[in-house]
Amino acid sequence: MNQPGGGRNALMARLRARRPVLSLGIFAADPAHFGPAVGDSLAWGAEMLHFDVMDGSFVPEITGGRAFVRALGDGMLRDVHLMVERPAGHAGPFAHAGADIVTVHAEAPDAAAAVAAVRTAEAELGRPVLAGLAVMPGTPLDVLDAFAGSPPDLLVVLAVDPRDGSRPDVTGACLRLIELRRRVTARNPKPLLGFDGGVGLDTASTIAAAAPDIVVTGSAVYRAGDPAGAFASLRRTVISGCAPVGPAGDR
C-alpha cells in the first residue's frame, strides 16, 4: 500500500497542475434534486464537490452531515468544509465517510486537534486526505503561525463571514490570498490556496488574478437559470484570468 503522505503530495500536485479547480457547493442546489445535480455536474466536467457543514453554533445555519458526503459525489473529489464549533470530533468521521479534503476553521478552539484527526484518518484509510484550514475575513493571518508544527495542506481565505451575514469583500479577500502566498512561499511542500465566498461571473476575473488553486462556488452555478452555461462561463473565466505562479510560488 502506498504511504498516505506520498499520495497526499501527488494529489496536491495534481490539483495545483489543474489550477484553478472549481469546487461546487452542492447544498446550493435544489435539496429535492441533489442526486441529479451531481450527475449534471459530472457531465459538465466538474471535478470537485463542496460540502458546507454547519452546526448552528459556530455559524447560525444548520446543514447536512456525513450521510450526504457518503451518498453524493461518486466520481468527484469530495471537499468538506466544517463550520462547526468543535471540529476535532468530526474531521476523522467525515474522512471515513469519503471526504478527500477536510477543512476546519482556524477560529475553532480545537482546530489543531482536528488537523491531527485528519492525519490519523488518512493513515487508517490508506489513501490521501488533505487537511485544510480556513480563516474568516476578520481573522488576522498571523493566527496560522500556530499551525507551523503541523502545517495543513490547504489554506482557504473566506470573503464573507457566515456568522454575521455581512456582504462579501472579494477585493479584500484577494489581497489576503496574495499575502498568504507570500508567507508560504518557502514551505515545502507549499500548501494549496483556496478562495471561498462571493464567487460569480461578476467577480471571477478579480479572484482569478489572485491565482487560487481551488475556487468554491455554489449559488452562482446551481441557482442560475442555465446551470450548465453558468458553470462553463465561470470555469472559462477563472482559467483564462488566472495569474501565473512561478515554481517558487511567486506571482
Question: Any key phrases for this structure?
Answer:
251 residues, TIM Barrel, 9 helices, 38% helix, 18% strand
Tell me roughly what share of residues is in helical segments. Answer: 25-40%
Tally the beta strands: 8
**Percentage of residues in strands:** 15-25%
Structural class: alpha/beta
For the largest beta-sheet, the strand count, sense and barrel status come to: 8 strands, parallel, barrel
Major sheet strand order? 1-2-3-4-5-6-7-8
Terminal Cα span? 37 Å
CATH topology assignment: TIM Barrel
Described by the principal axes of the CA atoms, the overall outline is: globular
Tally of discrete structural domains: 1
CATH superfamily: Aldolase class I
What is the string of helix and strand elements?
A: HEHEHEHEHEEHEHEHH
In summary, what is this structure?
With 251 residues, the chain is of the alpha/beta class. It contains nine helices and eight strands. The chain has a single domain, classed as Aldolase class I (TIM Barrel).
